Amino acid sequence: MGTSPKVEASPVAALGHPQSSAAAIDIRHTATVTAPADNVVGWDGDPPGSVPLGIPEGPDRAGNRTGGHSQESRAERLSHYAATYGADYGFEGVLVAYRHRMLVDLVREHRPATVVEVGCGMEPLVDAVRQREATGTPCPLFEKWVIVEPDASFADRAEASAGRDRRVTVIRGFVEDVAGEVVSRCGQGADLVVCSSLLHELEDPDVLLSALRRIAGPTTLVHVSVPNAGSLHRRLARAMGMIDDIHQLSERNHRFMQHHVYDRASFADVLTNAGFEIVHSGGAFAKLFDHHHMERVPFLTPELLDGLYELGQELPDLAAEIYANMRLPAPEPR
Ligand SMILES: C[S@@+](CC[C@H](N)C(=O)[O-])C[C@H]1O[C@@H](n2cnc3c(N)ncnc32)[C@H](O)[C@@H]1O
Hints:
alpha/beta; two-stranded antiparallel ribbon; 12 helices; 9 strands; seven-stranded mixed β-sheet; Rossmann fold; binds S-adenosylmethionine
């Protein structure tokens, strides 16, 4: 993927920020609750004195002990998550734009007729692909695009931006609940399933991976990406004595309800243990500091951001994000 041609638009521009200076990156602060600092405050989180937001697990309105697993609790946690995610987008918006750059290249390379996008967030990948279609050849880049999104506000945005493009469908629900509907919507089967930046947020990754297994057919390419424990910024925090271990969950991880921090080895393990065969794996974007501090670097030009993106591809062990493109193993001959 590192050799694919670049798309023309800079991610800074794609986010609506001026090209000249990333100091203009919109820095918004999430509401936080004052409390004694913990040992990772000041790194990958809010300023000292903040604690993670989150809906504590406990009895739901019906009085059931939820452990975070009842329908109501899941929906509540998700809408809380979506509000936090949207309010504190900041540097994440830059990473999303580079994720899209890489995935648009993947779509151009593989020319899938049917794509499933699991968890589209604030900016659906399909929009970046449609934008590419509008400016480039070959065209069109897909025939059918199915988005699975449980959060109503994200699903509404996806539907609104798809507009009259009848190739795009939004299925509202958690992928583990709606996998059957996704399969029937795909008809002949999905050629590509994209699940970016979601796996680490699930308490039990196997729930998501078994849903992806149900959706994937024998020829489907499945792309999954997660943040990397081995990222340069985590190694720097450890070298500075701010964290003891690069796998330590940060304040930001807690705030965004992220349960796991994978390195390349543990990421490969969780995927292969779930029955997938990794065809290709890699990394993207070398992030020097945590999001909070990246947003404050005054000289993040588009050229520098592009360079960091390329560097992450060259050095996947150090990249901010890691990904795997996988398939299900061919069935045993009878
Ligand atoms: C961190 S965002 C990632 C968004 C986008 N894929 C990206 O790479 O920027 C995670 C998304 O997954 C959605 N999500 C959370 N749990 C999900 C589940 N069980 N099934 C499908 N989507 C889910 C969230 O609502 C959110 O839109």
